Description:
With 429 residues, this protein is α/β, with parallel strands linked by helices. It has three domains: 10-137, no CATH class; 146-202 and 250-428, no CATH class; 205-247, no CATH class. It has helices at residues 22-32, 41-56, 64-70, 85-104, 150-173, 180-190, 203-212, 218-223, 226-233, 237-247, 254-269, 284-288, 371-382, 384-393; strands at residues 110-113, 122-125, 145-146, 196-200, 274-278, 291-295, 313-319, 322-328, 338-340, 346-355, 362-368, 405-412, 421-428. The strands form three sheets. An eight-stranded mixed β-sheet has the order 3-5-4-6-11-10-12-13, with helices on both faces. A three-stranded antiparallel β-sheet has the order 7-8-9, with no helix packed on it. A hairpin with a 2-residue loop joins strand 7 and strand 8. Helix 5 runs parallel beside helix 11 (254-269), helix 9 (226-233) runs antiparallel to helix 10 and helix 11 packs parallel to helix 13 (371-382). The longest helix has 24 residues, at 150-173.
Amino acid sequence: MFFLAMASEAHSRSPESFVPTGEEWELLHRIGASAAFQKSNRLREFLLYVGERKLQDPQCSIPEQEIGIAVFGRPAGYDTGQDNLVRVQASQLRKRLQQYFAGEERDEPLVVELPKGSYAPVFHPREALPAGLPSPAGHRSVWTWAGWGLAGVLGLAFALLLAQNLGLRQRAELGVGTRPSVDRLWRQMFGNGQTINLVLADGNLVEFENQIQGQISLSDYQNGAFAKLAGARIADPALQTLALNFVGRRYTSVADVKAALAIGLVCAANGLPLEVVFARYASTAQVSSHNAILLGSLRANPWVGLFEDKLNFRTVFEESPRAAYFVNRLPKPGEQPVYKAQWAALGFCRVAYLPNPKGTGDVLLISGTDVQVTEAGSEFITSERWVRALRTSLGLKSGDPVPRFEALLQGQLINATVPEFQVVVVRRH
């Protein structure tokens, strides 16, 4: 299935008989992607953290200190009597939830509240609808679209709907076995029952970083510190305004959408639930505790930075003159110490399969020196020909599982496309 969960009949259940399902997780992400939470990453992480804890353990009691450490970065054992940050933020979260359900989504069939005196959210249905009226849940998309503008949602929704239809048709008419190596690899990587969070690159972020002449940190990115960075690094007020207007727009490239299409088809054919998330609205929990696919370079997707120190091929960007390349930390015979891109002519893409930071899921990184080579990386990992080549490069026998790996691809750019690419290096982890 190419979705989190089909909408259930929550509106017809009583609070006493209510059992959390995938619908609750979808609701939390819709709330986190809403206008009420767009400028508050920490409140969104607060909501997702306590929501996930509640869904995993409906009887849980979530201590204030746990939230302070996990969400707000407080040191272990800090004194909650002296530090009231969590209580203040909980009050703000309650107000934002009330704002959401009273304004943007009056028709949500399911409501989530954070009761006073508790940090464990409560899910309950709205009052039952009059007989004969359709359930709002019946008209809601079966996918979660976190943090997208309308145009982006419609464009990518169309692409992923096409992927789902093609994947299901292929499965019905030809069978999953038409791409046995691909299907086996993807079920191995992500067949653990968790949702895959596909995090798309933030296209406009790259231009903003070009203007400030530097790489934005994940912390600044999460906190939306664009105005602070622009004020500190761009002297011209007019250029500051232009850069902020530019980075304020949500955009991902056509190449990323095509990559998502290829990934979506494979997920649909193999029954792997997929959630598409714009990088600006991804959360630490989604990337560090669950299955995730990160598309784009470190420049366009700061979440990639969580894994850079674990990789042999490290991303480097130089500001002046502008250059992008991968450094080979431990070159082997026949390998180069540096693989440097040539703008509009030659590009490289790193594809890596790793555990997430908490060891509770798996992560696939597809990071190119430009968007076109990133798309080639998605072809590499979804094509029967290339997955077989990967298995051969790793020295695997029939039936052997694919180990953690890094692969470095090289592609020639012709008219802003990569018609062909080759595998330069494959490394086991």
